[in-house]
């Protein structure tokens, strides 16, 4: 067993809501995207799910500047996910869209000096994204459709306009109300900050290390116990049909049971044991933490021709924060881990470049996001 330092991300309430404004280059979960480049937003077609063709909803973003590249002085990675539960079947294509945006230190949208993170002034000094282009009232993505009634509110697709009509008709038609109109649609996730911390984590490199560690654990436990997969299956059958319905304590209990012979699974379970709340593991240029023996076999190169490298992965604990409906027998949003691979050369040929995601399940199934 070895120790290595990587960045782990944890979801937390922001101390000030304005701290998640794009002026502060946030890492965050939910809400609307804090677009790094507010002018050249991607069209809705670029955000469509490769399974159902619906526009994906913003899930999270990480601020990950490249200190060795002037053109990537500011660098943000954005993750969008489909909310259609049928798209999370193990045989489906990966229902995620990954975008990467880079800006130099001197640009048209931000001052060259860092903002005062203790003051709201920076958020008030920048032009709103709406001054650069029309954005969807529901999801905050680029929009090319307007409400025909007031011609003031924009939408990226008809389904978002339909979903917003119950709220929008109050202002569109001037209907009486008590003044308490929700600002955020139920289609998007509750906005939270992602706090990144540099942590020392355990790394298991071969079978002998796992076996010796297992032997030490077994000295304190019964000789007869269910495997991790069997215990996890029991949890799911008892009303939790996916990892989304599994509590933090149940997740740790299931994943730290070493009955399975899958070394990747054992590595995964041991690695999250000390930090069960982690929702992000960031290790650009490193190796992803596999949750099963089925690994991505072929990482498609970037459109610029450069190789892609692993950058970060989304952990199953994030499913608990998403708070979407689950069904014991039906389809549900679910994953073991989602691995994100980005251009090694960090090309800047597109304001928002498409990158790759691989969705891996605990039983060894993995699906890759196709380029759009």
Structure description:
This protein is an alpha+beta fold and 372 residues long. Helices cover 18% and strands 22% of the residues. The strands form two sheets. A ten-stranded antiparallel β-barrel has the order 1-8-2-3-4-5-12-11-10-9. The two termini are 41 Å apart. 39% of the residues are buried.
Number of strands: 13
Amount of beta strand: 15-25%
Order of helices and strands: EEEEEHEEHEHHHHEEHEEE
Summed over residues and divided by their number, the pLDDT gives a mean of 83
For the largest sheet, list the strands in their spatial order: 1-8-2-3-4-5-12-11-10-9
Task: Tell me roughly what share of residues is in helical segments.
Answer: 10-25%
Question: Low-confidence spans: pLDDT under 50, at least 5 residues?
Answer: 206-229
Shape assignment? globular
| Rg, Cα atoms, Å | 22 Å
Sheet having the most strands: 10 strands, antiparallel, barrel
The computed structural class is alpha+beta
Total helical elements? 7
Euclidean distance between termini CA atoms = 41 Å
Assembly annotation: single chain
